[in-house]
Amino acid sequence: SDTRLRISSEMRELAALELLTQAGGTAYKVAPHVNQDDMYRAVYDRLNKGECIGIFPEGGSHDRTEMLPLKAGATIMALGATAANPELGLKIVPTGLNYFHPSKFRSRAVIDFGQPIDVPAELVEKYRQGGDAKRQACDDFLSIVADGLKQVTLNTPDLETLKLIQAGRRLYQPTQHSLTMAQQVELTRRFIKGYTVYRDLPAVAELRDRMADYNMQLRYYGIRDHQVETMRVGRAEAGALFVWRVVWLLIMGLIALPGTVINAPVFVVTSVFSKRKARAALAASTVKVRALDVIATWKILIALVLVPFLYTVYSVLAVVFVRRAPTWAQTDVIKQVSTMSTVAIYLWAWALASFMSYTALVFGEQAVDIVKSIRPLFLTLVVGSEHTELLARQRQELSDDITELVNELGPQIYPEFSTTRISEQLGDGLTTHSNLINESADAFHRKMRMGEQALRKRINSTIGSRQTSPQSESTEETPLAGPSEDKPNQRRGSKYAFNPPTPRTMETLNSISPMEFLSTVTGAVLGTGSPSAESSDGKHEAGSQFEQTRRSTLEQKKGLFYFT
Predict the structure, then answer these.
(1) In sequence order, what DSSP letters do the residues of 461-505 get, joined into one string?
(2) Is the pLDDT of residue 37 over 60?
(3) Please, what is the Cα angle at 434 between 432 and 439, to 5 degrees?
(4) Which residues pair with residue 96 across a beta bridge?
(5) Fewest 10 Å CB contacts: which of 8, 20, 179, 351?
(6) Buried b (16+ CB within 10 A) or exposed e, 250-278
(7) Cα→Cα distances 417→150, 187, 513, 546, Å
(8) Is residue 233 within 8 Å of residue 460, measured between CB atoms?
(9) Which of these, 444, 436, 111, lies nearest to 254 by C-alpha position?
(10) pLDDT of 392
């Protein structure tokens, strides 16, 4: 109606009541009626010609962990086209888009295609009847389409449940340890189904609590799950790897620096504008969680305009520089380039900017991996191997129990689970790298790994077998939890409790300058520098801020900063 408005819920705010009870009435907007006949007619024509039509049935973009209610347009198209042409043989192919970090450049995505859905003849007959039967046919077919889409997408009630399931999938140990992206998505989907069915079992609830405790520790230390295994090294080995990776980081940074500099305006502008648009979208939407879809969309839109504009500016500046190069810049290369035509210089400058940008992306990703691997080594140096080994053993125990539970409950949902396992069920999913820069970056990374392995062997051969102190032996032999009787069908509880450093210790650690830390690590690795000595009255000598930190923490049970 253009004159009457029906309110779906009760209004209790004073401002809304005053607005709705005005003497002259209240103005409101009316969505104009849109005649969809022309649209449906165009769809039917395309389908009758044997062509395909892509539809996003949710009707909007969002970043929720479950699908929105589907719109009925797709079912009307399918039922209407089949009702008009029974020999059409129409099929609907469910397609799922699964993203890995969708708001980041060069992030990964997996597209899954489900089993084609035929249009049921009984629903087509109901559609022809019109009225309530037509609406019922559309609703029934819409539920069939929704079930097909759920088979190719990840759907959980909330974000916390999705994080829990993803953590369980990472801890699970299949027979094939290296999974492709498609296999990871399919395994996560099966974990979701299994968790939905068995979430109330005591064993599942117990593992859920232990995973929450493990994830809390990871957040406290600021590391990821895949970095825990890298912390199972001694202090000397961790120090050497730390210095080694810092050197490689500098090399990677130098290679990626030119492309990073010329693309810095793109990074800054896309970040600022996309976050501003995301805040506006969150304020106006009731279905978005973090508006990651808005951030990704605006990053793409801005980059599509800004990148060509910047490269054009850089190319024009290159032409001007070559044509009007000052005396100090008259090198042999500049003189040779100046003999080229203006168009050729412009195109070569554009190609060089593109090459530098792509090189920065590829090698920059390798540098980011190295940066992420530095913090676990830093923690190993500072906290000590007792804490890191405890966390690694807790992860291994949790992984074993999750694998055991999945292998026990999996066949009850998937009968072929016991015979084929994950590698055959999920397919092969081969990945190729044909690009020259990608291969160079991978080779660069492999050389770094080979150097690290050689460094590990040299350290181990130099150190040899270490004598274990009485205190550490007692720590190894003393059980961390009392003995418990093994009961049938009951898994052991975690014997590793969260015992992180005190906030005061971490605050002191953060105050240490990088130069002091590097000098101490270098001394510990290379054997330079003298160990701290104690005076006759039992007090340590006054030294650097790092030594003060060491003295303040020697009394702790785990002995943080114990570099002697």
Answers:
(1) HHH-SPPPPHHHHHHHHS-SS------TT-PPPP-----PPPHHH
(2) yes
(3) 100
(4) 112
(5) 8
(6) eebeebbebbbebbeebeebbeebbeebb
(7) 21, 12, 53, 54
(8) no
(9) 444
(10) 84
Q: How far is CA 192 from CA 181, 199, 207, 371, in A?
A: 17, 10, 15, 32
Note whether 149 and 133 are within 8 A (CB).
no
- What mean pLDDT do residues 504-518 have? 53
> What pLDDT, in 10s, does the model give residues 65-122?
888 889 989 999 999 999 999 899 999 999 998 888 888 877 888 888 999 999 999 9
**Strand locations in 177-274 (E):** none
Does 254 score more than 90 pLDDT? no
| Whole-number Å distance between alpha carbons of 551 and 562 | 9
Lowest mean pLDDT among 11-20, 203-212, 430-439: 430-439
| DSSP secondary structure string for all residues of 343-363 | HHHHHHHHHHHHHHHHHHHHH
Question: 334-368 pLDDT, tens per residue?
Answer: 888 888 999 999 999 999 999 999 888 888 877 88
Q: To which residue do tokens 């009255």 refer?
A: 537
Q: In this structure, how many other beta carbons lie within 10 angstroms of the beta carbon of residue 524?
A: 19
b vs e for 536-557, b when ≥16 Cβ sit within 10 Å of the residue's Cβ?
eeeeeeeeeebbebbbebeeee
Cα(149)–Cα(432) distance, integer angstroms:
28
The phi and psi torsions of 246 (rounded to 5 degrees) equal: -65, -40
Give the C-alpha separation, 74 to 81, whole Å: 11
559: exposed, middle or buried (C-beta count within 10 Å: 0-12, 13-18, 19+)?
middle
Mean pLDDT, the chain, integer: 76
pLDDT band at 315 (very low <50, low <70, confident <90, very high): very high
Structure tokens at 502: 């005190």
Q: Are 297 and 388 in contact (CB under 8 A)?
A: no
Copy the structure tokens of residue 150: 């759920």
Q: Exposed (0-12), middle (13-18) or buried (19+): which is 495, by Cβ within 10 Å?
A: middle
Tokens read off for 4: 């009457």
Q: Which residue has the tokens 């759920």?
A: 150
Most distant CA pair in the chain, distance: 101
Angle of helix 159-171 versus helix 385-413 axis, rounded to 10? 100
